[in-house]
Structures are given as C-alpha cells and as structure tokens.
Specification:
Layout: H1 3-15, H2 19-28, H3 32-38, H4 42-56, H5 68-88, H6 100-105, H7 110-123, H8 137-149, H9 163-176, H10 181-188, H11 204-220, H12 227-241, H13 254-274, H14 279-289, H15 292-298, H16 303-316, H17 331-342
Helix pairs in contact: 4-5, 11-12, 12-14, 13-14, 13-15, 16-17
C-alpha cells in the first residue's frame, strides 16, 4: 500500500470510522484532499452519510442523522478542514526571521515612561521631573535601548530633548515646511529621532539644563547609573564651562564644550566596556581625576595661546611652520595651516 493511501486509511481509523464504511469511502475518494474538496458544506456530508447508511441498511430516514457513522464522517470532514486552514495560513510576524512586531514591542510609550517616572520618584523622592527637565519619549527610548543592550554611546547635544524642547521642535517643523506622507508615517511609528533644529544656546543655564535632562534619562533606565553621580558630573562640567576667563582670554564656545563632553562621556563608556567598571565608578573617576582631554578643551584659551600651543605640537611633529603663522593677527592662517598639515603627519 502506498504511503499516501496508508495515511488516508490511518486518518479514517483515527476518526473512528468502521472498516466496512472506510472501504467504501476509500474506493470513491482516494485521498484526504479529494474527500475534503468534495464536501465543502455540512449538508453535503450529511447527504452522503444518509445514502451510505441506507445503502448498507443500517439506518432509515428517522435514524441516520444521529447514527454514530454520521458523526464519524462529520468529525473526519472537520479535521480535514482544520488541517487545510492551518496549512493555508501565512506565518505570523512573530515566526518571521525579521520580527517586525519586535520593533513596536520594544518602543517606549508614554504609559511606559509614566511607570519609569513612578519608580524614579520612589528612588529619588526629592527630585521633581517637570517638563523642562523630563526627557522626551523619543530620547528616553534611545537611552533605554542603550542600557538594555549595554551599548552605551554618546549622543550629540541636539538629540538631548526634554518634553518642552521636543514640543518646540515639532511646532517649528510643522510651521516651517510641509512634510510628505512617508515622513508623517515614520514619525507616527517612532522610526525617526527628533533633533533640535534651532541654534543651541550657549548660556551655562541652558547647558546645565541639557545635561540634567540627559542625567535624568539615564537615571530613569535600569543600568544607567545613579542620579547623584550624573549630577556630580553635570556640576563639575558647568563649573568649568562657566568659569570667568582671565584678562585677554576668551570664554569657551558651545562647540568646544560639546566636544569636551563627548571626550568625557566616551572615556566613561570606554571604562565600562574595557575596564569592566560600573558606570557610577566611571563617572566618579572622570569627575575626580579631571581627565587631561577634558581639561585641555575646557581651559579658556586666547587665540594667541592656541596658536602657540599648535606651533609647539607642529615642531614636535617636525612640521615647518611659517613664523608669521604664530602671530595673533595671522591667527586664521595659523588655524588653516595646522588643520591642513596635521592630517598629513602622525606624532612619532
């Protein structure tokens, strides 16, 4: 007996169809598919059961409807219909190699943020997260993904948005230009990150506010460190940034402050990855030791002091610098020269 015919007999036997009736079915319908496609409706299988039972003389018009063989044929048809429905159903999104629904399930909603805020309030009862210091949902989602995947990375300051800043960004974006349908759909799905598209304010208060929003974002997420250590870093950074420059010296620009912050945070995250220390210990170390890279950028330097420092570095790297390039009045030329030459030479 072929494998297909044996499997068909096994199905009828599993359904409980007696052998004498199974032989009749097998002679007419040689496969389960043929049987299933022939009886598309329940009335069809009932009519077939009536004819079979009356031909065998085991039931009449008043008894065939509730005869056991009728029930067995109905059960056989239903099992074949269920198997056909399962085979024709496309795989669910959760079974696909690329789980599209995992993107939406990992997205942070406003309700999720409220739960994080409730936990934050328990741990830090004296801290009030008002809208100017509360991380926006989009930014907090990014930080949460970093902490959950242990892939901490520094983000530019224009990506650090509070609730108030995110509202201003969206309002400015809506009022300045029209957006196409693809951009609107991507924004609604949370697939694009908001960025501050206005000029970053360089006042110490604004910088302190921005860094505090970032500190709150990491403290809200599991594995992001303690708020006290983050705020210690913010205080130390803003203290250096807001220090009054000496006579003939210029203040630190916002771009230099952002570069200093990048150097410091990259050092913190490097320590967590390579040295296997906690983020709290790394923050404490960067604040206490005042890493040279941060101090170098935060020092209030005049143009002449910068040119002199670059001249010393060029001499160490065996670069010939014109004498006029180190003079204060020729400072732009010195910057262009050093930037051009420094890319061509590696320190010994």
């Amino acid at each position: 007996m072929a494998d297909g015919a044996k499997a068909w007999c096994d199905k009828m036997k599993t359904a409980g169809l007696p052998d004498e009736f199974a032989d009749v079915v097998k002679k007419t319908y040689t496969s389960p598919d043929a049987f299933h496609c022939s009886f598309r409706h329940e009335d069809d299988i009932d009519a077939y059961a009536q004819c079979m039972l009356q031909d065998k003389g085991v039931a009449d018009d008043s008894t065939w409807r509730f005869h056991p063989v009728t029930g067995t044929l109905r059960q056989l048809r239903e099992s074949l219909c269920q198997a056909a429905n399962v085979a024709s159903t496309p795989p669910s999104l959760s079974a696909l190699p690329l789980q599209l629904n995992s993107v939406s399930s990992s997205r942070l909603s406003s309700a999720d943020r409220e739960r994080l805020i409730a936990t934050f309030s328990v741990h830090y009862p004296g801290v009030v997260l008002h809208s100017s210091l509360l991380p926006s949902v989009g930014y907090l989602r990014t930080i949460q993904q970093q902490c959950s995947s242990k892939s901490l990375a520094w983000l530019p300051w224009k990506r650090v948005l509070s609730d108030d800043a995110a509202f201003q960004v969206q309002s400015h974006r809506t009022s300045t230009r029209k957006r196409d349908m693809a951009e609107l759909v991507a924004e609604a799905a949370g697939l694009c990150d908001d960025e501050w598209d206005l000029e970053l304010m360089g006042s110490p208060h604004k910088v302190s506010q921005l860094l505090t929003v970032r500190a709150h974002a990491y403290a809200l997420c599991t594995g992001g460190g303690h708020l006290h250590n983050w705020m210690s870093y913010v205080h130390a950074f803003v203290t250096h940034y807001s220090k009054r420059p000496g006579t003939g010296m210029r203040p630190v620009t916002p771009a230099e402050a952002e570069e200093a912050d990048r150097e410091a945070l990259c050092e913190v995250f490097r320590a967590t990855f390579q040295d296997k220390v906690s983020i709290d210990d790394a923050l404490t170390s960067i604040v206490r030791e005042a890493k040279a890279a941060v101090v170098e950028v935060l020092l209030c330097r005049s143009d002449a002091a910068w040119a002199h420092a670059m001249h010393s570095r060029c001499v160490a790297a065996r670069i010939t610098v014109p004498a006029s390039a180190t003079k204060l009045h020729d400072y732009p030329r010195a910057r262009r020269f050093v930037n051009r030459e420094w890319q061509l030479v590696r320190l010994p």
